[in-house]
Amino acid sequence: MMDKTFDPAGAEARASAAWTSADAFRAGRPDRAGAEPYCIVIPPPNVTGSLHIGHALNNTLQDILARFERMRGRDVLWQPGMDHAGIATQMVVERRMMEAQEPGRREIGRAAFLDKVWAWKAESGGAIVSQLKRLGASCDWSRERFTMGERGAPDEQMVRAVTKVFVDLHAQGLIYRDKRLVNWDPKFQTAISDLEVQQVEVKGHLWHFDYPVVDAAGIETGDIITVATTRPETMLGDTAVAVHPEDERYAALVGKHVRLPLVGRLIPIVADDYSDPEKGTGAVKITPAHDFNDFEVGRRHGCRPINILDSEARIALDGNADFLADANPDAEALALHGLDRFAARKAVVALMEAAGRLREIEANTHAVPHGDRSGVVIEPYLTDQWYVNVKPLAERALQAVRDGRTRFVPENSEKTFFQWLENIEPWCISRQLWWGHQIPVWYDAEGGIYVAGSEAEAEAQAAAKQGSPVALRRDEDVLDTWFSSALWPFSTLGWPEKTAELARYYPTNTLVTGKDILFFWVARMMMLGLHVTDEVPFDTVYLHTLVRDASGAKMSKSKGNVVDPLGLIDQYGADALRFTLTALAAQGRDIKLSPARVEGYRNFATKLWNAARFAEMNGCALDPAFDPKAVREPLNRWALGEAARAVAEVTAVLEAYRFNDAAAAAYRFVWNIFCDWTIELAKPVLQGEGVDPALKGETQATIAFLIDQIAKLLHPFMPFLTEELWAIKGAALPDRGLLTLQPWPDLSGLADAEAETEIGFVVDLVSEVRSARSETGVPAGAQVPLVIVGADAAVRARIGAWHDTLVRLARLSEIGFADAAPKNAVQLLVRGSVAALPLEGIVDLGAEVARLKKEAAKAEGEIRKLDGKLGNADFVARAPEEVIEESRERREAEAERLAKLQEALARLSDPAS
Length: 913
Prior knowledge:
This protein is α/β, with parallel strands linked by helices and 913 residues long. Helices cover 45% and strands 17% of the residues. The strands form 9 sheets. Strands 7, 8, 9, 10, 11, 12 and 13 form a 7-stranded mixed β-sheet that branches. The chain has a 4-stranded antiparallel β-sheet with strand order 6-5-14-16. A 4-stranded mixed β-sheet has the order 27-26-29-28, covered by helices on one side. It starts with 7 loop residues before the first helix and ends in a 6-residue tail after the last helix. The mean pLDDT is 93.
């Protein structure tokens, strides 16, 4: 006997244990040896991470595809693993050491520190794996990989893969060392990627400084040019002033020089399109060593970069040859050496004011880059780093998309992909950390560089070059985490070895990931995958959107609006959370998530459970001899036909990655067709007196069969509930096996037009009557008459066959027939037949029409107001994203409301007119 209520936690534990025991998710099962392979590689979560709502969405969508294709008979490999998360992991371990009052990493040395990191990983890392299992992720967990490999493993295959790609790219001239600007984190003292930079809006100032113009002899002419800056301290490194070529105010000054105040350096006035005549004074100070745009301007005009900061963002002037060359600095300027950048900012402003060079200070709110983990302001910093020349690699990736070898869903993501890759810059791949893949480069005492797969190979290279063995030191930097992640689709399958897994599952099929890492990860996997293996790493990239809070705001700890998926699982069950995320995952549209929505889909699970329990209590048991094509009762034929339609629809939209439409189609069939109509219409047969035993038996067998099909149909979305139902319903059947390994439902040939005409009419008639009652304010308990107007013999027969059911479900006092509709009746058009509800004495139809017209006018007014707002370019440009989205949703809601009001008004007139 089924329990009275569905217990998600118990079902989750039982299903997980059964799947693990059966090794259900292992790729390459013997029974799938001849099957077509299907492979997804998981976007590897950080080893430091815990399951957040973005992970829950991403892995739910992947799991739907994996379970769907597994049920369709394919040999599925969902490849799991974790990313070593260089800076995040190093930060966690260093913090732990500090809290334990242990010596810092520099005190204990690199080897001892790495021992601590590996120990932490073994003890605490990877909590997210068990959390993904709670969500129901059907990965082949026996194949779990780690981007750093497994310490002590015999071959360290993941390390060899990364090392080989670096060495090969260097040999091909695609990896090189260069001095360029990077995002520099002064707290962690390392370069970081753009993805690790957060733009924070700050209320600051714009300082306007006067730079004196000089003649060819270096004598001040009396002219000045005014520049504006938000970072006054960087003026110490200025090497030019830029104006727009067409700015007439400065045309006569182009080619002349100014003397840089405090420093005494003569710097040129150059014409460059970068300067915006409409912004500030139209003149821009150029500091190539401390601004990314200025760096490019400096390159175009041959202005040398002068770095005036050290790695901790302190002013570095003492002994700075670049700064001192061609300069005659004031003593007060040289005294700034060693000051923190923000203290130096105040000092520079004070010195400029004292020199009479401070023209104006204006309030200025602007975005300032911060390290997402350190929380400090990031500096554009000139430093030696290792780079990949990705331009030739990018062209192959672009061509693969143009040729259709890899497609993006939604398709409009291609535009962003093309824009990024067509304007791609060299990729900085070195990081000043200890945790990560140490760069395979060694140096001799003279600075000679040896790039090799191992220290022994490097020593052999050096000995061959020098004529005898020489001492070498290894580059201390590690590779950007994204470098090893870019190899993920093939390194996880055993590359560089030619493994059986690589041959079978590569190229992979679908990549499911967030749109925010299209460039940082997807593009790099495509570039390196094509270059290394000569194959695209995946044929389809599905990019999902963000999960926001209920109001549409981006979730953040500072706002206190973060939704914890594990808490939702504890409260409502994993299936409810999964189905909610899927139902809201419309292509290209961010998800607004609230606990109330999850609760609603928990109620969906309860609805199905209760229907299955009702079926059990009414003798609906599986019959191994049941043949769905042999059923005779119209209701049963209709229900089977609707199930066939639902399966076909869910299949089609899943193949198109329209996850929300798949959830909607499954929901509609289960809740509306099966629970609301099939069960309800079957009650007289199941519970009535004197029912034909054959009819009752057929209905019982049909309902039991449909519950099985529902379990299959819903399994990719709600694996725990469905596996539980499958086990309960098939308990008496030998060798039934696990649902997750069952074939996807095949109900082709069950569509029945005759049954659909009969039962569809009954369903539509009851639905129309219920809607009319609700819209016209008929009291819920009131029984009203129904008149069928001009009915033919087929309609009369249908009404007769279902009379009692219609009266019961539509709450009617009687059903009659007439040639014309009664006066003061609401008229309904149902599949070509006119039905009328005489409401005289029950509802004041005149007042109801007036009310509906008034409400319709209000809705039209609100739509006009919202259209005006959304059509205002200034509003769209300035308003926060969540405010714009809220306005769009309100407009959609008002439009839906207006349509319903107009439909209600139409009911009160001749429906055939």
